Amino acid sequence: MRKWIAAAIIASGIFCFINCKKNTNAVPPVTLGDATLTDVVITQNLSFPWEILWGPDDKLWITERGGRISRINPTDGVIIPLLSISDVVSRGEGGLLGMVLHPDFATTPEVFVAYNYDKAGVYTKKIVKYTYNGTTLINPIVLMDNIPASNIHNGTRLAISPDKKLFITSGDASVSSRAQDMTSLAGKIQRINLDGSIPADNPTAGSALWTFGHRNPQGLVFVGDRLYSSEHGQNTDDEINIIQKGRNFGWPNVEGFCDTGSEPSFCTINNVAEPIKAWSPTIAPSGIDYYKNDAIPQWKNSLLLAVLKDSELLQIKLNAAGDKVEAVNTFYKGTYGRLRDVAVSPQGDVYMITSNGGNADKIIKVSKAP
Q1: Is residue 188 part of a domain?
Q2: Structural contact between residues 181 and 155, judged by C-beta atoms closer than 8 angstroms
Q3: Backbone dihedral region of 142: left (phi > 0), alpha (psi from -120 to 50 degrees) or beta?
Q4: CA neighbor of 41 nearest in space, from 339, 296, 346, 347
Q5: Which has more pLDDT, 27 or 274?
Q6: Each residue's pLDDT tens digit, 15-27
Q7: Domain containing 94: what range?
Q8: Is residue 2 part of a domain?
Q9: What CA–CA distance (Å, rounded) separates 324 from 201?
């Protein structure tokens, strides 16, 4: 019997040596309690990608800060360029940033992007809607403009709600006082209709403002009608927040929870919403997505968070109600460097993009091992 097993092992090894293509990008699988994960690089030679999302055409859609929008075949990693936006200006962490597709893409093939550009010598952010014609993006329409931009703290993640409103995160653009200044578009989360008009039920009539007191929110995802955001702190208190209409999120007067110095009184007076999770020291949280698939059962009902400074993927396990964090688990720490964003496919595969620079950034696929 042992001889038969040994012969089978040798035979299978010979077969794989002849027929299996070696994957030099793969690393040893990560073993978990309920499933074994495997990860593989599917695309390389990207330059500071910012957004990755799963499209209804079963392709990955990405932005790169230099101005390029592409589709990626998740099977073979082939890059399909769509458009290079000519007026994008990439400075520091600025450039072409967030992107989202219309929820009814098959009948309304609209693509919403946010990017920084030079407006008469002033670094500025605008929101532009394009139409996808099957080959490229055409008919740009500016939906929102004059959002302050900077080399840092641009925020700029986009999400569309179940009732088809566009949400836009905007950082304080390196001036912290803007976050509490209701006359500034910086340090806010905006909410507009998909045609750029202002919804009648926004907190302030005629204003796109939805929430304020934000420093640098770089992650945004809807789970049903609940909106989660990840946000960079300064030296302490990176955050996961549940975004609530009209609420103040504290920056720069409050960092993390309302628990030190003058924070409790400021929070009471100013209707400050506390995070559901905070990290000190900071980890530099960026893009998030929600995992609800059975493919990796131990990740179900979790936010997946791409982390820059700590170079890792975090699983943030939520309670059944979705309003508290039960556990945080770390994966791929230091394996691929800085991670900028994460997307989940309908099949339960997870795709991460790096942010290491040098035209060497990658897309990594994480899935349940066969």
Answers
A1: yes
A2: no
A3: beta
A4: 339
A5: 274
A6: 343 334 444 455 5
A7: 23-368
A8: no
A9: 27
pLDDT in tens, 317-367: 999 999 999 999 999 999 999 999 999 999 999 999 999 999 999 999 999
Long-range contacts from 256-262, C-beta under 8 angstroms, 24+ separation: 256/280
Global pTM? 0.91
Distance, in Å, from the CA atom of 40 to the CA atom of 166, rounded to the nearest integer, reads 33
Token pair, residue 326, equals 């039960």
Note whether residue 17 is domain-resident: no
Count of domains observed in the chain: 1
Task: Answer yes or no: is 182 within a domain.
Answer: yes
- For the stretch 111-130, pLDDT in tens is 999 999 999 999 999 999 99
Contact 191, 208 (CB under 8 A): yes
Beta bridge partners, 144, equal 127
Q: What is the CATH number of the domain that holds 196?
A: 2.120.10.30
DSSP assignment string, 4-61: HHHHHHHHHHHHHHHHPPP-TT--PPEE-SS-EEEEEEEEEEE-SEEEEEE-TTS-EE
